[in-house]
Design a protein that fits this description.
GO terms for molecular function: catalytic activity. Helix content is 25%, strand content 22%. By secondary structure, the chain is of the alpha+beta class. The site of zinc ion has 5 residues, from helix 1.
Length: 113
Amino acid sequence: MDCLFCKIIEREIPAEIVFEDDEVLAFNDINPQAPTHIVIVPKQHIATLNDIEERDLALIGRLQYTAAALAAEKGFAEEGYRVVMNCNEQGGQTVYHIHMHLMGGRRFIWPAG
Ligand code: 5GP
Ligand code: ZN
């Protein structure tokens, strides 16, 4: 499948992997928008948030659970951080394999952009 994040999962493209389990992979974003910017992806290919099915709900929860664990590990869980999931073109999605951005280490403004 011609999917960048599937290729990272399959180790066909290198990435700085920071966490992996049976269902999830997390790696540093190649173009970080914060001192820590990690992309968390399910190993299962799901193109957009609109394609999530009821059987995937636990997996989506695992993305957020992983984000919180990584925030704690990086030391900014208490001061705060941001998680973002972009959907389709107007939402800013550029890679069509769902992913959660975990960004921390600086202050974020809201609403953003
Ligand atoms: P999106 O815009 O789809 O929400 O997020 C895609 C993210 O993937 C972007 O933040 C972008 O910097 C990151 N990205 C794109 N290509 C690569 C790559 O080859 N390696 C890594 N580690 N991140 C990538
Ligand atoms: Zn994929």
